[in-house]
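Researcher: Here's my situation. A collaborator sent me these components and asked whether they could plausibly form a single complex. I don't have experimental data yet, so a predicted model of the whole assembly would be a useful starting point for our discussion.
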Amino acid sequence: MSTEARAEHFPAVDWNGGAFPYRVGHRKLGMWLFIISDSLTFSALLMGYAYLRASNNWPTPFPFYPSIVFSSVMTFCLLSSSLTMVFGVSASAKGDKSKARMWILGTIFFGAAFVVLHLIEWNHLIGEGLRPFYLPEHWAQAFTLADGTPPTALFGATFFAITGLHMFHVATGIIYLLVVAARVKKLKHEDIEISGLYWHFVDLVWMFVFPLIYIMSVDMHGALNH
Amino acid sequence: MNAHAEEHFAGSNKLFTSVWVVLVVLTLIEILLAYKTMPIHIMLTILLGLSIIKAALIVAYFMHLKFERLSLILTLVPMLVICICLLFVFFPDSFRSSGLRYKFQETAPVAPAPAEEP
């Protein structure tokens, strides 16, 4: 980088006070810092899952239907909700607050669809007998190794902890967006953009949870004979 | 204050829609991969690679980081990447405890194989 370009990106006067060095307001910077710390929370949880998975006999019980079909449709819902959210922020930037509210309500619809589908999926697994520290009996039998090592019961703990924390974030995001949609005319554009940042972050986390929890746990060989 | 009614928000709806299409296509590739037989570490590498591309697209375009100041990007991204990489420090221990737990597996089975499931 040339000296001129460097001076343009990092002018010393930015850091002498009285300016926004990052060219974002304090609330937006705060949301970014929250997102970074929350990413570390999810990273730690996913690392913990990887740690347990690498050191245990891990069951891979998810059938194509309902688990993979449901989680794929849920992924589609979240991706689409991100698109409607970014349309809402765009409309708000142009000063069209009514259109922004319409798009935000669309985002809430997709988010709610995600939560409903996820709860149905949870209900199905709980109905099969999965608990945080207990595997269904037929899973335990199907995934026992030839030398008699049983699969670890921690599957349920990691599954419910990670997807549960993510679902909690989606539910919180829906409440947040409902408040933003109700007050959209009073809020500044940057505040609407900040709510968008949070929503996209929830989408981003699912982009890691979906392949690591669902795609990596597909019952390839039909061990459970679904 | 009418001059301030229009805020700057770079990127057109067409651009965002094409990013969304790419994200959906990458997701479909992931679902197809789930039904391909391959060693787990190769599958994990491909899935994580695709996920990182998807995350980068979301952060760059939807979260608008691409259009922010370089100093903000440099404040947020590198330290997150370094912190996540530091978490890999646990894996030798994970493989070690796997070795302890299943150390008899490669030499001789300690228990007779269970009867075949009907």
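Model: Some features of this prediction you could bring to your collaborator: Confidence is low (pLDDT under 50) at residues 107-112 of chain B. Residues 8-89 of chain B form one domain.
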